[in-house]
Amino acid sequence: MSIIKVKTKLDEYKHRAYSSDINELSGRTNRSDITFFVNNEISKRMDFKPDDVLVDIGCGDGTLLEIAENKGSSCIGILPSEEEVTRVRERFLTKPDLINIEQGLASKTDLPDEVADKVVCNGVFLLLDEEDVNLALKEISRITKPNSLVYIGELCFRDETEGKNYGDSILKWLMWVLLNQGTGEFLSRCKQTLRALFTTEQMLILPKNHYYCTPEEFISRAKSYGLNINEHFPHKSISSNNEVIVSASRQDYIFIKV
């Protein structure tokens, strides 16, 4: 049995690095289609060009890095744990000069000042605490060239745990999925649970808290670190039927470094 309760987000992604499916590093179990869709949307907005230096903080399985590299950009992916770095470096063994994977945090990348033409940090800020949000904004501003774009995505503007009263109970969680996400997602999660029970494939019971703030608050906070808002919009994903879903709780932001 491989059902594991993790206490922190860092521990969660250390465990995900050992999954047979590298897409687990995106946090989207069995949904690599969502990972590609989300990163393709980011690519359209950021318009990666030859000779751009992209820094992707929390680069997950490296999908965005591969998209940008195919457009001629040089890419640096930042991941917090040695386990994640090792796993994603293995993916890009044939492109070591074009895609570099380094260990670091949103709050401390250890990159030089003003190294990046484009910075992306998607699905990371909701994992931070209040203090680290400020440190991450300061760090992102530091590594970004003046007049360059910064994409911060999937930041919640309300508490997504509201109404999720299943705690650490797998049975209650499955019933919540059935009632709130439908039969298809319920059956998928049942299969995931059975694989964890009867194979070595792991399943994680995760921390329930996350960071969230209103767009007005986040835009004001970013501005104090030299990041002026260019545009913001609801985050988009896709259903299992390939239909576009507009998030009711998450916002994406594009800033310009002044």
Automatic annotation (TrEMBL):
Gene3D superfamilies: Vaccinia Virus protein VP39. The keyword Transferase applies. Residues 55-152 form the Methyltransferase type domain. One of its GO terms (biological process) is methylation. CDD domains: AdoMet_MTases. GO terms for molecular function: S-adenosylmethionine-dependent methyltransferase activity. The keyword Transferase applies. Keywords: Methyltransferase, Transferase. This is Class I SAM-dependent methyltransferase.
